[in-house]
Design goal:
8 strands; alpha/beta; 4-stranded mixed beta sheet; globular; 2 helices; single chain
């Protein structure tokens, strides 16, 4: 088995500049790196990140799932950044909400209940 070092969720977009501005808004910072034209990367946690890549042919067809410590706090933090989430869905063992980037890619935030009933 290969020895993995990093994991990036790739979100293809048609308007790279608009997507970068949108991700900067809710992440609260510029990309951590822009390794080549049309690609921007943010480290989200540990060795995991989001990569926004200019690829109009596949834009808007991806989803990334981010597990969070507190779903209500996440929704509140996003609202403060001017990013509106969908309703929080409560399934007992998990709660989730999502946002959609300008290309149509979904970013789903999930809170896992440590003691589901």
């Amino acid at each position: 088995m290969p020895s993995f070092k990093d994991v990036y969720a790739v979100l293809p977009v048609s308007d790279h500049a608009a997507a970068v501005a949108w991700y900067e808004q809710w992440l609260g910072r510029r990309p951590d790196t822009e390794p080549m034209e049309g690609v921007a990367e943010w480290r989200i946690t540990g060795n995991a990140g989001i990569q926004v890549a200019h690829d109009p042919e596949t834009a808007g067809k991806s989803t990334v799932v981010l597990v969070v410590e507190d779903i209500e706090e996440t929704v509140g933090d996003l609202a403060e950044q001017g990013v509106e989430c969908g309703p929080i869905q409560d399934f007992g063992f998990v709660k989730l909400t999502e946002i959609v980037d300008p290309a149509g890619n979904k970013v789903t935030f999930v809170w896992e209940n440590p003691s589901p009933e």
